């Protein structure tokens, strides 16, 4: 079959690898400028030099046997490394912030891309025909197959099948006219937004931990990005706001978000003012309500739908979703 996959993240690339291995002709399209998505890496200049931030997904696990084999290959190739930060749980209390040191579960090895998070997607994308900077705006089923219209490339096709590997909200809009049942599945899933803040300091911070989950506060996560394998240079940190705080301030100016969440971090840790700070809003960051099945398939229109939102908010779940649909089509 000739198959178009819209979305070249972990789900789309995972499906593409399986389908290509079965002899299918696969072409991928992605609205981004390059590999990454929520595994993106932000680059910036600062008074302390060039900076890199993993401002989306912070790490991932590999519990599924098939996904673990992929990660082992990528680790051997130097695209993935293990991260073992000192962990903590932090919460505000009547007398200030309470910090409890934690130990990761033995079964949950934390992996990161090396030397940056988008390295895993770049490695998975190698060898595929991918059109970047292409946003799909319409899918049409004709007698000769499916055609997809894009912002820049115009109408592409025909394809025997089309697979959407994009956030639920975007999938729901694209499917509304051609596959109402799949559109309803996508609309039933909900995704929480997340404000991310990137900080750099002139000197290392003495926090006693490198990765913290934060409860009952505007922040839900803080991590020393510089502590990850392959990172060097300035003392960089990434903060994630809680879903509740993000929803309440989703339309706030980036500069105001960065200032507000930096204030919380400095109060929590006693850190000095950073020499660099910036914010990024992830509108589709973490699945709240999943679709409840690994993939969706409209056999009449030959359209598939995959993504972590089908299962759970994990990088591994995105791969599992793509793998499940590819296996279904191969059978």
3D architecture notes:
By secondary structure, this protein is an alpha/beta fold. The protein has 2 domains: 1-32 and 133-188 and 291-331, FAD/NAD(P)-binding domain (3-Layer(bba) Sandwich), CATH 3.50.50; 40-118 and 190-289, Polyamine Oxidase, Chain A, domain 2 (Alpha-Beta Complex). 26% of the residues lie in helices and 35% in strands. The chain has a 7-stranded mixed sheet. The chain has a 6-stranded mixed sheet with strand order 9-2-1-13-20-19, with helices on both faces. Strands 10-11-12 form a 3-stranded antiparallel sheet, with no helix packed on it. The protein is globular.
Defining key terms:
Polyamine Oxidase, Chain A, domain 2; 35% strand; 7-stranded mixed beta sheet; 331 residues; 6-stranded mixed beta sheet; FAD/NAD(P)-binding domain; 2 domains; alpha/beta
* Number of H- or I-type helical stretches: 8
Q: Termini, distance in Å?
A: 13 Å
The percentage helix is 25-40%
Biggest β-sheet description:
7 strands, mixed
CATH architecture tag of the largest domain:
Alpha-Beta Complex
Strand arrangement in the largest pleated sheet: 7-6-15-16-17-14-18
The number of strands is 20
Mean pLDDT: 95
Percent strand: 35-45%
For the record, the CATH class of the largest domain is Alpha Beta
Could you please say which CATH topology of the largest domain applies here? Polyamine Oxidase, Chain A, domain 2
Low-pLDDT residue intervals, each spanning 5 or more residues: none
Computed structural class: alpha/beta
Computed CA radius of gyration, to the nearest angstrom? 21 Å
Which series of helices and strands comes N to C?
EHEEEHEEEEHEEEEEHHEEEEHHEEEH
């Amino acid at each position: 079959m000739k198959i178009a996959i819209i979305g070249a993240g972990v789900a789309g690339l995972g499906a593409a690898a399986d389908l290509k291995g079965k002899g299918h002709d696969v072409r991928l399209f992605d609205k981004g400028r390059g590999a990454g998505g929520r595994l993106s890496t932000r680059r910036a200049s600062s008074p302390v030099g060039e900076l890199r931030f993993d401002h989306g997904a912070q790490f991932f696990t590999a519990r599924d046997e098939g996904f673990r084999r992929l990660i082992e290959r990528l680790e051997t190739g130097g695209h993935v490394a293990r991260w073992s930060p000192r962990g903590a749980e932090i919460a505000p209390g009547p007398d200030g912030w309470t910090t409890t040191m934690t130990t990761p579960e033995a079964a949950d090895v934390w992996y990161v891309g090396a030397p940056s998070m988008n390295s895993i997607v770049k490695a998975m994308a190698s060898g595929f025909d991918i059109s970047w900077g292409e946003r799909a705006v319409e899918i049409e089923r004709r007698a000769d197959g499916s055609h997809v219209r894009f912002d820049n490339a115009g109408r592409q096709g025909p394809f025997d099948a089309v697979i959407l590997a994009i956030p639920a909200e975007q999938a729901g809009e694209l499917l509304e006219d051609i596959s109402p049942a799949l559109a309803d599945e996508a609309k039933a899933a909900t995704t929480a937004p997340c404000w991310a803040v990137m900080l750099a300091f002139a000197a290392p911070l003495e926090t006693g931990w490198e990765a913290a989950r934060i409860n009952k506060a505007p922040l839900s996560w803080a991590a020393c990005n510089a502590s990850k394998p392959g990172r060097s240079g300035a003392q960089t940190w990434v903060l994630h706001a809680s879903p509740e705080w993000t929803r309440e301030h989703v339309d706030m100016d980036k500069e105001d978000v960065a200032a507000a969440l930096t204030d919380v971090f400095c109060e929590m840790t006693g850190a000095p003012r950073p020499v660099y700070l910036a914010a990024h809003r992830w509108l589709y960051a973490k699945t709240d309500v999943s679709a409840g099945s690994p993939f969706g398939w409209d056999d009449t229109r030959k359209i598939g739908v995959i993504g972590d939102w089908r299962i759970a908010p994990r990088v591994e779940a995105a791969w599992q979703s793509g793998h499940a649909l590819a296996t279904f089509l191969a059978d």
